[in-house]
Amino acid sequence: MTVETQMQQAIAGIQSAAATMKTFALETQDEQAKQTFQQIADNLENALEQLKGRQQYIQQQEPQYRQQ
Predict the structure, then answer these.
(1) Which InterPro entries match (predicted)?
(2) In this structure, are residues 10 and 54 in contact, taking their beta carbons and an 8 Å threshold?
(3) How far apart are CA 29 and CA 16, in angstroms?
(4) DSSP state letter for 63
(5) 14 in Cβ contact with 48 (< 8 Å)
(6) DSSP letters spanning 19-32
(7) Domain range spanning residue 49?
(8) What's the gap between Cα 11 and its chain centre?
(9) How do the pLDDT tens digits run along the chain, 68 residues long?
(10) Which one of 7, 16, 31, 68 has the fewest CB atoms closer than 10 angstroms to its CB?
């Protein structure tokens, strides 16, 4: 498994987790829980942006890691 493939899997996992947290935030009636779920989703989205930046770097600078 290439580094790029691993990065794609990590990105997909974080996207899924962020979507789940957003769903929890929408479904709960507890305002504190809603705020907590939304904060977690925001943190995951920040991490996602950092990983996407790293993925772009890998694609530009390290073509040997691209999946053939």
Answers:
(1) DUF1657, Ferritin-like
(2) no
(3) 22
(4) G
(5) yes
(6) HHHHHHHHH---HH
(7) 14-61
(8) 5
(9) 778 788 899 999 999 999 999 999 999 999 999 999 999 999 999 999 999 998 888 888 776 655 54
(10) 68
CB 42 within 8 A of CB 9: no
Distance CA 19, CA 10 (A): 14
Q: Give CA–CA dist 6/4, Å, rounded.
A: 5
The tally of domains found in the chain comes to: 1
pLDDT value, residue 48: 96
The DSSP call for residue 2 is -
Q: What is the pLDDT of residue 68?
A: 47
CA distance 48 to 28: 24
Inside any domain, residue 27:
yes
> Which tokens hold the place of 17?
């987790």
